[in-house]
Amino acid sequence: MKDSLRAIEPVIGLEVHAELLTRSKMFCGCAVVDSTLAEPNTSVCEICTGMPGTLPVINEQAVAFALLVALALQCDISERSVFARKNYFYPDLPKGYQISQYELPLAVNGILPISLQDGSRQVRIRRVHLEEDTGKLTHESGYSLVDYNRSGVPLLEIVSEPDLTSIEEVKAYATALRSLLQYLGVNSGDMEKGVIRFEANVSVRPVGNQALFTRTEIKNLNSFRGMLRALEYEIARQSALLEAGEPVVQQTLGWDEAAGVTVPQRSKEEAHDYRYFPEPDLPPLVIERDWIDHLREGLPELPFEKQERYIDELRLPAYLAGVLAAERTVAEYFEAALASAPKIDPSKLANWLSSDLFGLLNEAGLTIEESRVLPAGLSEIVLLVEDGVINATSGKTILSEIFNHGGSPSDVIERKGLEILNDREEIRSLIDEVLESNPEQVDAYRQGKDALTKWLFGQVMRRASGRADPALVEEILERRLRKLRPTDGD
């Protein structure tokens, strides 16, 4: 069974729905509010609730944000696109249809580079189009509640081709796309608030077979962890069916996080099930070429471009460059720290940031914007260690102190007396104190127990509260110990 399963590969395409960071909704003037915090049904009007006789109006800022994404994905942008009515009935859809784009989307044929352990590759983007979000259902025992605050919020749908063939590739693609949206400032990427959601189309096939087999669609995956778990389960389920010679039923699935299984919701819809037809209340969306050129000129350096620059110019390892470039706020922090200390080694700074500072942030559950450690402060700590003013242990102590209480490295060094001890006479005195207070260990060393050298070194460093220059301690201790063995001595 295991040998044959190795010859099966998944084929996955992702549909990503990202709420756009506009102030008002897609087709009305209602404010976009945080649906996790606002009182239910307080940011609604006759337009976003679909009252008869109302007319939608396209949000220009939403179109601009969508164009930025399409340009960043190197899509072909349609100078004329059309909104359509996608008809289906569900309690969170007050009009009985969703205004979306179908036959003539805003943009098609893009690419997104992704980084993998064995290199990088490009995932094809089929289409990028605008639509409006639905409401939000809360299911209680025996009944459901609906909040229409989210109904009508601008939503960008990004559909990939079925180019993903492993869980690693799916994670890399989702992470890269979320990062790109954050860099462009069009989406916060906060999955806990539902502002970015994934739907996965999944099938499996024998390796080497290029046909597309029957697929299922897993809806409304709101976290990376949930998406990856759902895909692992569904791939295993379909692989077992393929092995047994049983058919995969084309259907829409939900993900039961508690049970860890996909569950059928309904038969998989095709386009004709939605009875798409052009939205009669909206004219075609015509995009002027000058507007596209203007937006293209304003594109920031994108995450994959930044990663390549870190590798080429700063000589960072690919993995570390990817970690620093993935979040715009982290990249901005890193570059501010670099700018504050032009002579600093970028690799050493990157390691302190990604290891020590990230560790403190993760433990405290904070973002880098919430850190008390300023970029210049982190650079100062790294330089103090590299210049031998303090040792690495003291550097970590200073970093933790500033992280928890604020202040500057120099203040902490002075307050805690953390300057590195490199006075030879003082170190000799500490070594003599250790040797005099541990006669049994000294005698065992005289008898040939060389392993005690490291133990004695540790005692000296402890007596110096970790401040002593390790190389100097090692040198002086070695000379002192040699004198304890007359046959070796000088």
Which helices and strands appear, and what pairs or packs with what?
Layout (H helix, E strand, L loop, with lengths): L1 H4 L2 E12 L40 H13 L3 E2 L2 E2 L1 E5 L9 E5 L5 E10 L2 E14 L3 E5 L2 E5 L6 E7 L6 H17 L12 E11 L9 E6 L2 H21 L6 E6 L4 E7 L9 E2 L6 E2 L2 H9 L5 H12 L3 H9 L1 H13 L5 H19 L10 H12 L5 H14 L3 H8 L7 H14 L1 H8 L5 H12 L6 H13 L8
Parallel strand pairs: 12-13
Antiparallel strand pairs: 1-10, 1-11, 2-6, 3-16, 4-5, 4-15, 6-7, 7-10, 8-9, 11-12, 13-14
The secondary structure category is alpha+beta
Major beta sheet summary: 9 strands, mixed
Residue share in β-strands: 15-25%
The dominant shape is elongated
Mean pLDDT: 91
Name the poorly predicted regions.
1-5
Q: Terminal Cα separation, in Å?
A: 71 Å
